[in-house]
Amino acid sequence: MHRVRLTSVNDFAEWRNAARGLLIKGVQPDEVIWEDPSAPIDLFAEPEDRPPDVAARAVGVVPPLFLELAEAAVCHREAVRFALLYRLLFRLQKDRELIGVRADPDVSRLYRLVGEVRRDSHKMKAFVRFREDETRFGAWFEPDHYVLERTAPFFVRRFASMQWAIFTPYRSAAWDGQKLLFGDGTRREDAPRGDAMEEMWRTYFASIFNPARLKVQMMKSEMPVKYWRNLPEAELIPALIRGAKEAEAAMIAKAATIPPARHMRADARKIVPEEAVEITSLADARAAVQGCTRCPLYQYATQAVFGDGPATAEVMFVGEQPGDQEDLAGRPFVGPAGQVFDRALEKVGIDRSRVYVTNSVKHFKFEPRGKKRIHQKPNAGEIQACRFWINLEREFVRPKLIVAMGATAVQSLTGKAASITSLRGKKLELPDGGHLLVTVHPSYLLRLPDREEAARELERFEADLRAVKAFIDRRGDEVRSGAGQAA
Ligand code: URA
Ligand code: SF4
Q: Please, what is the Cα angle at 263 between 213 and 50, to 5 degrees?
């Protein structure tokens, strides 16, 4: 196995040099692990096997179109980008026409990455707002991808005569009227106001730019001064460098308890893209969901949490989304809400191992606050995107009864938003012939501040589960008497 740890998240030349070295040695795409600097350093990993720098030597044939696309794709945030590019480069050696085959999964993925990077760059051009401080301008912007370097020349052309800096979380760019410099990233919270802006400029070149990482590009001034007078008014404020070190220390401290986002983890590279898995069973779906990128939630969660239980279950329980503990354990309903659920099931006599338990949305949505990850409700778009998976679960399990716990489950299962109160206790028909029973979400019971009300609501929840139990018993009788007749 070859490990290539790149020193930059988006330096195309660096990737290309490494890729050429591997190609010369005939290294197969699946023999390479590509890492960017955001991947945690694995102390137990095999030593890095960095191929010789062979930038000057040409290898094989590489269509210019591929190079152009690859240059954009390295700026994508998806961890698999470097591996995808090497796989394509490798395949292109045998099939030069490949790059034109849009139906090929690798090629289509490449185009998707490129499209997303280009859109992000356009967004940056449209939404960066400079804040003026006497003669200098600063702006804070959070791109979705690593697009600062490819977009900064646009601002140089546009605002050539002014001195400006754009700060992003991963890198900063500064234009002093002649040179475009790139330095470390920073954080929005470290925002300067008033005098701090001036201070920032005084310390700017001294503190943010690590000379070892400095890249200098000479740029010609083009835009006359009169244009930059008309800058859009301030909306976002730039970040202050002095706070960046503290912020970094705080981030490191936080990282100890909050698992790194998926795209920051070494194992992200082992995740198979969803489209690479053919789904013909529940087990296939369970494997494929780990590669799902249908909505943005996959980026921050530890893993997708798929449903749990026998594929032959007659009853399916559907919750909202995994919580903090489910995200870490990889199983639904194992945290506080899961305990409420388990106790209620036990009380009414439902064996959890005989039912199928799942969620409407498979990735944990949260907001980091200090050392905690605070649950956030999935939005309609995320629920809709994730219906793909619950629909597969329904198709493969074919439960006779589905229990929707809470409003998100109702929305996911019916495609429509509806209030629990209006649907609760009614037995509803689903278009596929199954039945739907609506009840509250167990975590609702945990949130009720009034003890008496909580006790009352718990009883109602248990009453709903008793109806489920009665259904299971009835089905059992039907199946048994059916089997009896057949015998
Ligand atoms: N809440 C849910 O909806 N699902 C879980 O798995 C855990 C908490
Ligand atoms: Fe895919 Fe659902 Fe995860 Fe979104 S939440 S990425 S749709 S599995």
A: 50
**Is any ligand 1 atom within 6 A of the Cβ of residue 163?**
no
Question: Can you say whether the dihedral through the CA atoms of 314, 317, 322, 324 is positive or negative?
Answer: negative
Inter-residue contact 280 to 286 (CB < 8 Å): no
Tokens of 331: 């199983």
CB 125 within 8 A of CB 148: no
In the predicted model, residues of the chain with pLDDT beneath 70 are 40-61, 132-136, 188-273, 276, 482-487
Ligand 2: nearest atom to the Cα of 298: 6
Residue 105 Cα to ligand 2 midpoint, Å, equals 20
Can you tell me which atom of ligand 2 is nearest the CA of 289?
8
DSSP assignment of 183-251: EE---TTS---THHHHHHHHHIIIII--GGG--EEE----S-HHHHTTPPPP-S-PPPSTTHHHHHHHH
Ligand 2 lined by 295 (C-beta under 6 Å):
yes
Q: Which of 3.40.470.10, 3.20.20.70, 3.40.50.970, 3.90.1640.10 is the CATH number of 297-485? A: 3.40.470.10
What residues does each domain of the chain span?
A: 2-120, 128-190, 197-253, 297-485
* 183 CB near ligand 1 (under 6 Å): no
Name the strands in the sheet holding 401-405, side by side, starting at the edge strand that comes first in the sequence: 356-359, 315-319, 401-405, 435-439, 427-429
How much is the pLDDT for 371?
73
What pLDDT shows up at residue 425? 80
Q: Which residue of 321, 361, 382, 439 sits with most ligand 1 atoms within 8 Å of its CB, as the best mutation to test the pocket? A: 321
Measure 317 CA to ligand 1 centroid, in angstroms.
11
Cα 98 to Cα 111: distance, rounded to the nearest angstrom: 13
Structure tokens at 12: 């195309």
Residue 443 Cβ inside 6 Å of ligand 1? The answer reads yes
- pTM of the predicted model over 0.85: no
124 lines ligand 2 (CB under 6 A): no
Dihedral class, residue 425 (left if φ above 0, else alpha if ψ from -120 to 50, else beta): left
Cα dist. 321→87, 223, 364 in Å? 35, 51, 6
Q: Residue 435, SS3?
A: strand
Q: Which of 8, 77, 142 is closest to 296 using CA atoms?
A: 77
Angle CA(233)–CA(235)–CA(241) in degrees, nearest 5?
115
Rounded to 10 degrees, what is the CA torsion of 24, 28, 29, 31? Answer: -110
For the CA of 408, the nearest ligand: 1
